[in-house]
Amino acid sequence: QLQLQQSGPGLVKPSQTLSLTCAISGDSVSSNIAAWNWFRQSPSRGLEWLGRTYYRSKWYNDYAVSVKSRIAINPDTSKNQFSLHLSSVTPEDTAVYYCTRGHRHQYFDLWGRGTLVTVSS
Amino acid sequence: DILMTQSPLSLPVTPGEPASISCRSGRTLLGCDGYNCLSWYLQKPGHSPQLLIYWGSNRASGVPDRFSGSGSGTDFTLTISRVEAEDVGVYYCMQALQTPYTFGQGTKLEIK
Predict the structure, then answer these.
(1) Helical H runs in chain A?
(2) A53 in contact with B at a CB cutoff of 8 Å?
């Protein structure tokens, strides 16, 4: 069954690292067509793209400038999943985080169910 | 970043009536293998966004044919021919011409 299963903590303390994982069923993280993205959504910022990882004979990553110094998105071929790591979080990073599959970087046809992450002490 | 502007932001509709949402981009979105890099998503209450339309006018798998997309370049429209109760939620347009991918503000459709 084609789906993305998200996991990770819903509460992170300020200055710590937010880490989420997205397990892929029905496709491969090493696909030459798909790209694996993270978005987030908050009332103040709306829907915001954070970054992506994808394989085209080698691995590539792209990140939004707004988080570039703090973010890492890593594929894990052994578990067919990918992860998001966002360091030095502040309350402004509180949001619902979504993992998605991008088709040839052109549209997003598969979304995880979302994880509400609250940054608070 | 490419600015995406939607209108209206709120859309009350009587069931069975048509509805249209406009989306305008800050630059032309032609560029996805000859297609427009414009997609539409519906986010139902409490759910993730779901793909409705890609390349400006192609319905995604499983999307009812009452949904249609039109337009090219910088101006796009999502049309629902006959609104049903299950269509309530927030509709977003999104550009994928370049990163960062950007969304419109969202249009909240509600049933009168």
Answers:
(1) none
(2) no
Judge whether A42 is closer than 8 Å to chain B, CB to CB.
no
| Contacts with B98 from chain A: Cβ below 8 Å | none
| Mean of the per-residue pLDDT values of chain B | 97
Rounded-to-integer distance, Cα B94 and Cα A48, Å = 11
Instruction: Decide: helix, strand or coil at residue A88.
Output: coil
Residue A50: both structure tokens together: 């954070």
Give long-range contacts, CB 8 A cutoff, 24+ apart: B31-35: B31/B97, B32/A104, B32/A106, B32/B96, B32/B97, B33/A104, B33/A106, B35/A106
Chain A nearest-CA distance from B53, in A, is 9
Q: What is the pLDDT of residues B66-104, one digit of tens each?
A: 999 999 999 999 999 999 999 999 999 999 999 999 999
- Sheet strands (E) in chain A: 3-7, 11-12, 18-25, 34-42, 46-55, 59-63, 71-76, 81-86, 95-103, 107-111, 115-119
